[in-house]
Amino acid sequence: MGTKRDKLIRLLSKNGHSFISGQELSEQLDISRTAIWKHINELKKDGYEFESAPKKGYRLTYIPESYNESTLKWGLNTNWLGRVLYFHETVDSTQNIAHNLAKKQAPHGTVVIANEQKSGRGRLERPFESNSGGIWMSVILRPQMAPHQAAQITLFTSVVIAEALSEVTGLTIKIKWPNDLYLNDKKLCGILTEINGELYSINYLITGIGINVNQKENQFSNHLREKATSINIASNATWNRAEIVQKILTALEVNYEQYMNKGFSTYKEKWTSMAYKINESITIQTPQQNYSAILKGIDDNGALLIKQGSKIVPLYSGEIIW
């Protein structure tokens, strides 16, 4: 979608259900009335409905619940996050597309979203089921920070998304270290942060976000049904994914600016308050061994704090298998 159509979406969205004249749209967008009409017809193909009247212009009468670039951009009130947004029906991986865009100097805040991924991946290159009905999204960020701080981004993102989803759905969502959200003891969301950088600086960072929203239980493969859930399964309701994406992007933008200005401490406290199995015994798996410990929280660098005997120590890598 070109920038003119983006601006048209914003103008019509701001005007709500009131008419806005073709002349005013033409002047605001610096394009002909014929071009306006063509853009309106393209939006109609995405399910939008308009009323037009001589001397009055156009007004929006219906916003579809369909999931596409128009519905995602319509009503998105962020300043920079998602202002450049690419939507695809089916992709191999939004992470791969985002990496290619970032290498071509895509701006900070660029977002890639797909209805379905064929080769979604999670931590440690594990396959990530990404069928239609979920939110599969990658965000390009260009933070001025050292690479070792990037672990905080995953944890920060976990907090923001857990808060946003809890607010939208009314469900209690927990955070499992290092990169998952849990609902009713099952995985709801995975977050993957990938970095391109030098020894002391980050060129760009991509945060991949995968959320199970409207999937039914039979959409999960057999081995996942005992481990994964969706908002639909937990609430017995179908949700507007575009509205959820907009809520998340708005929350991420506000909180990212706060995080960059004030640091990680606020999010560290929130993470601890929402941590899955906090102060409970967990089993940790490493290449060398499995062992039990008490989960106590995270440190300033994002390492997991665990209690073994009388000592509290940081865990930088490993897997919590309960």
Structure characterization notes:
With 322 residues, this protein is α+β, with helices and mostly antiparallel strands. The protein has 3 domains: 3-62, Arc Repressor Mutant, subunit A; 69-274, 2-Layer Sandwich (BirA Bifunctional Protein, domain 2); 281-320, SH3 type barrels, CATH 2.30.30. 33% of the residues lie in helices and 27% in strands. It contains 9 helices and 14 strands. The strands form 3 sheets. The chain has a 7-stranded mixed sheet with strand order 3-4-5-9-8-7-6, with helices on both faces. Strands 13-12-11-10-14 form a 5-stranded antiparallel sheet. Strand 10 (281-285) and strand 11 (290-298) form a beta hairpin. Helix 6 packs across helix 8 (241-262). The longest helix is centred in the last third of the chain and has 22 residues, at 241-262. The radius of gyration is 22 Å and the shape is elongated.
Per CATH, the superfamily of the largest domain is Bira Bifunctional Protein, Domain 2
Please state the structural category. alpha+beta
Oligomer: single chain
CATH architecture of the largest domain: 2-Layer Sandwich
Shape label? elongated
- Quote the CATH topology of the largest domain: BirA Bifunctional Protein, domain 2
Q: Could you give the distance between the termini? A: 46 Å
For the record, the CATH class of the largest domain is Alpha Beta
Q: Overall pLDDT, averaged?
A: 89
Approximate helicity band: 25-40%
Strand order of the largest sheet: 3-4-5-9-8-7-6
Q: Please tell me the total number of domains.
A: 3
- By DSSP (H or I, 4+ residues per run), the number of helices equals 9
Q: How many β-strand stretches?
A: 14
